[in-house]
Design a protein that fits this description.
By secondary structure, the chain is mainly beta. It contains 2 helices and 22 strands. Keywords: Signal, Transport.
């Protein structure tokens, strides 16, 4: 676990500079006590607290591969190639949610209909769609489709809620992902308990995922594997705030016949952003194979450390990340279960990979334009080495194919973006975000060389 010279320099500069100003954020210990109020005692009623609303999102992406890379698509039975891919989808969510019934045990229901309208239906443009545009077996876009994104019933006692059905869930290992026109969701049973002032517990058992760009439920599979599926994902953990300036999370998950995965995350704040503030973030994952070892033999330790300096409108963040293992750091497909600092367009998660990122952001509210923000970043990964990988467990179909060819691979990524959130009026909270990313990989680096421009507009609305 040896840090690069750049990472050490960033650590030193950040720590020394922040110490001079670290006076404003309280470092006081927070005692653990019972929650002061019961959420269920304040229930307004099943009908009385009913709400109906949602969001509509216009999601546009144009990608271009270079340095020999191409996308494939089929036309009249022939496989054709092209450097470019365009996806343009309007995703709309209508969410109906009751209130909790009154009494010792409250009951609530939630139902959300997801709808997608494809605005660019050219087979040549969408290139089969992948997880961006839903396409049929011939590669033609499904022009319009709908599904139940959420459908659950919730039971609450005091400050503890049990949810059964299709739902959102958020933790460092199993987390809903919402970076397309529509988000994913999970089918199963979960609980969230907030009976203490600074300590909460979460857990769940899920057997299916509702993908971002598919109508039907699917079994869980890994992001970087080659097709193995599992019927059951179980997770349990806690969130704790021991200091006013420190928050930690600890979670574990069993992915049946894939792996056992453990997560620890911590965020600490120091100083005053009007002068100078330091935010330190640490994320660590331990992954080991389990059961039938459908993903092969795994023994992986991966961590990231980030140090963010903030002064008024400006922020500067340094992030170092390292994978210790002869396989990818892997996570569940259709989830956001990767809280690593350098998970960008590329996850920088190759076998034995090290990576470093520098990011700058500016909040124009300090200059009289609230809601307008810009950011820019540069990240580099090196030392990717899969030559020692032997963990296919005799199951070549499900192993990390091709990983053995990665010997000293490296890559780099640059990105720039801007966003604006409307502050008032009928379109209040509407956000518009534009991003441009360029990624360049060496010959056998998995992500290749690609450029992408995205323009995403999200409009929330209330009906009742």
């Amino acid at each position: 676990m040896k840090l690069s010279s750049k990472a050490l320099l960033a650590l030193a500069i950040s720590s020394i500079t922040a110490t001079a100003y670290a006076e404003s954020v309280s470092q006081d210990f927070v005692p653990t006590t019972l929650a002061g109020t019961s959420a269920q005692s304040e229930a307004k009623g099943f009908i009385e607290d009913f709400s109906l609303g949602g969001t509509t999102r216009n999601w546009y992406s144009h990608e271009s591969k270079y340095r020999g890379g191409t996308f494939e698509y089929k036309k009249h039975g022939q496989t054709l190639t092209d450097r470019n891919r365009t996806n343009w989808v309007q995703g709309t969510i209508i969410n109906a949610s009751s209130g909790f019934t009154q009494g010792t045990v409250g009951v609530k229901t939630e139902l959300a209909v997801y709808n997608a309208v494809v605005l660019d239906r050219s087979k040549r443009d969408i290139k089969g769609g992948s997880n961006r545009t839903l396409a049929d077996s011939d590669g033609d876009a499904v022009g319009q489709w709908s599904k139940l994104g959420l459908a659950n019933v919730q039971f609450r006692v005091s400050n503890t809620t049990l949810t059964a059905g299709r739902q959102n869930f958020s933790s460092g290992i199993v987390d809903t992902i919402g970076n397309r026109a529509l988000p994913s969701s999970f089918e199963g049973v979960s609980f969230n308990s907030e009976e203490f002032s600074n300590l909460s517990f979460q857990g769940g058992v899920f057997d299916r995922v509702s993908p971002r760009s598919e109508q039907s439920l699917s079994k869980f599979r890994s992001e970087y594997g080659n097709g193995a599926e599992t019927d059951k994902v179980s997770t349990l953990g806690l969130n704790y705030q021991p200091l006013k300036s420190l928050k930690v999370s600890v979670f574990g998950a069993n992915v049946k016949d894939f792996w056992n995965q453990y997560y620890f995350g911590a965020t600490h704040e120091l100083g005053d952003a009007q002068q100078l503030a330091l935010t330190t973030g640490f994320n660590y994952y331990k992954t080991v194979d389990e059961g039938k070892k459908e993903m092969g033999e795994i023994d992986n330790d991966t961590f990231s450390l980030s140090l963010g300096l903030a002064h008024q409108a400006h922020s500067l963040t340094f992030s170092y990340q390292q994978v210790n293992g002869n396989e990818y750091f892997d996570y569940l497909h259709e989830t956001n279960g990767i809280y690593l600092a350098n998970s960008l367009t590329s996850d920088f998660n190759g076998p034995n990979e090290k990576s470093f990122q520098v990011a700058y952001g500016i909040n124009m509210a300090e200059y009289g334009v609230p809601g307008l923000k810009f950011n820019i970043y540069s990240a580099r990964g090196w030392g990717i080495d899969g030559t020692h990988y032997t963990g296919n467990n005799g199951r070549a179909k499900f192993a990390y194919d091709g990983i053995q060819s990665q010997d000293g691979e490296k890559h780099q990524e640059y990105g720039i973006g801007g966003s604006y959130a409307i502050q008032s009026g009928p379109l209040k909270a509407t956000t518009v975000r534009a991003t441009y990313v360029e990624h360049r990989g060496s010959e056998f680096q998995a992500d290749g060389s690609i450029k992408e421009f995205r323009l995403v507009t999200t409009v929330p609305f209330n009906i009742l």
